[in-house]
Amino acid sequence: MSNLDAVLMNIRTVVAGVVGALLFLSVPTTVEAQETAVPALGDGLVSEAPVFPVVQPPGAYVRALEAGTRSADGRPGPNYWTQRVDYSIDVELDPASAHIAGTETITIHNNSPVAMPTVALRLYQNVFAEGVERNRTVQLTGGMEVSRIAANGTELSEATRQTFNRDGGFLMLGTLVAIRPSEPLAAGDQLELEVDWSFVVSGGGGFRNGHLDNEVFNIAQWYPQVVVHDDVFGLDFEPYLGDGEFYVDYGDFEVNVTVPEQWVVVGTGTLINPGEVLRPEQSALLASAPALDTLVHIVTAADIADGTVTRAAGDGLHTWRFEADNVRDFAWAASSKYAWDATGAETGSERGRALIQGVYDPEVTTWAQSAPMGKKAIEFFSDYLYPYPYPSATVAYGPPQVGGMEYPMITFINRRDNPRSLNGVTTHELSHFWVPMIVGTKENAYAWMDEGFTTFNTALAMDDYYAADEERRPGRAGSMAGYLRAAQAEVEVPIMWHTDFAPNGFGRGVAAYSKPGMLMHTLRHMMGEDAFDAAYRDYIETWAYKHPMPWDFFAMMEEAAGTDLDWFWQSWYYETVTLDQAVEAVSDVEGGVEVTVSNNRGGVMPVELHLELESGATIVDVWPAAVWAGTREVTQFVPADGQVRNVSIDPDSWYPDIDRTNNDWERPGA
Ligand SMILES: [Zn+2]
């Protein structure tokens, strides 16, 4: 993010026989750049040469740098703060009517240096209400009924747009409700809100949550939740429209879920009253599971048939009590059809091993692997990213409309009969336990900071799991293919656009998932695996339980790379320009060859040449992205000890070249 005059380092790695890792080696060489002719439209007026614009963060971010809540190296500044929000929630589910009724006490800790006259809550379920703005097609449920809001013990009345600023109260605005208590919430002070609400859980026409035949419920984005107030953008008063998922502050939860007996409930955090709801043998199995690498079966198909899923309850209802500390959300699942498996995972965290659970319809046989798949993902990411700090991780079966959806310590996944598909989606969703659950990104705006990172994380995990399968393409190939399809169809949306405002669904998906996933592999290739992995881990650890913005990530990666990367962010994150490098000419000269490469489109990337000699030796010669400053065609000398048989640009497809038909040169007559 510094200016472009930072020197991009040249790379020249000569490898005989095998291709080695390509590093940013500090070997600057002279670039022989060939200028293209300037069109005759006035002296110095027009240049066709590509320029490298600098990344310009928004003013809000620049002001955060000045205020010292952020710093130029991409780390939190000395004055960094986040709000804390604690919840105590009682909720009851009536499965037959799919009706949920809840009451909550919220404590907002204003750690910001400013007083807040207004706070706000998200009413996500109103995305299913008539007349509410949304960017997805839904089946209407009526949305959320809010029957009471009190602030510091004083009941508030509903305001209109005309009376809100003058008289306070609460103002319903679709998926948001703005609240003005009688006194502003002072800096350093706390505000206690009490809210009563109810809604009907969406059936087949919902998303992210819902139920299957009133027997399996996945409940998320279900309680009035405090809107983030951060140091960069202030109050995140943007509606929930459907595409963007969430942006949430951290806090502690106590959640009591009441359901009929013979129903299983799993959720974020730890079940603290297993003895009240489970039979003693089940409680003992559950307590034993974290230490085990083998599965225990807490509820089996036989239990479901025999009516021994839970203890008998006197009044026919059980209340399942959960606690979760330092999380950004709470979600839960409940079912009368859940088999329940548990095991343990090694995390390397101070807390020790984690409880891993799979809950599923026992008739869906692939799901018998759900807990082992969860265990594998938790252990892989604990090792690669950051030790999993939470006590549990649950993979919960759900209705088709949840697809795969992540919340802290719990994911909802629909039926998957192909084991590799279930493993892939489980791994993807559990990667989200790190991004954005541990690293609290502003996902509703910058979806790529969790979906793109997760696509990348999942590719690495799957490459590890299936290393023995030689037929399998590397995980990164899928991201590259997805990106290239969108680029070739010219339906791309810039990665940095707010995800809710993408004009087409395919472009939105590619901008959130495959393109930023692909670019992580490209960056890792350019930086070298060790340097990239160390920087990526540093980012995860540095921003755990905080709210990084894109420019923080950019700055941290630049610091680790030791070079300015604005050309990379600008071409690939802010724009939809594409890359087409072509070998134009190869000529023999004393001691090697001169190679001419053209840059036929707007995207900028280094040039990675692979030369094969008649002797069979291979030379890898990398030109830094800086060679493209001010030119579209570059000729460089490449030393070669013997006759060159062929020259290829990037034969391993690390860079998103849109036309690979012009990437190769072969000696005529060879
Ligand atoms: Zn995802």
Helix content: 10-25%
CATH fold-level topology of the domain at 82-249 = Immunoglobulin-like
What's the pLDDT, averaged over the residues?
Answer: 92
The CATH first-level class of the domain at 82-249 comes to Mainly Beta
- Which structural class matches the secondary elements? alpha+beta
Distance between the termini: 46 Å
Taking all Cα atoms into account, the compactness measure Rg is 28 Å
Number of helices: 13
Oligomeric organization of the protein chains: single chain
Q: How many β strands by DSSP?
A: 33
In the sheet with the most strands, the strands line up as 7-6-10-4-3-16-20-18
Offer a few descriptive terms.
single chain; 670 residues; alpha+beta; Immunoglobulin-like; eight-stranded mixed sheet; six-stranded mixed sheet; 33 strands; 23% helix; binds zinc ion
Describe it for me?
- Among the domains are: 11-55 and 585-666, no CATH class; 82-249, Sandwich (Immunoglobulin-like).
- It contains 13 helices and 33 strands.
- Strand 29 (607-613) and strand 30 (618-623) form a beta hairpin.
- The radius of gyration is 28 Å and the shape is globular.
- The model is unreliable at 1-34 and 36-42 (pLDDT under 50).
- Residues 428, 432, 451, 454 line the site of zinc ion.
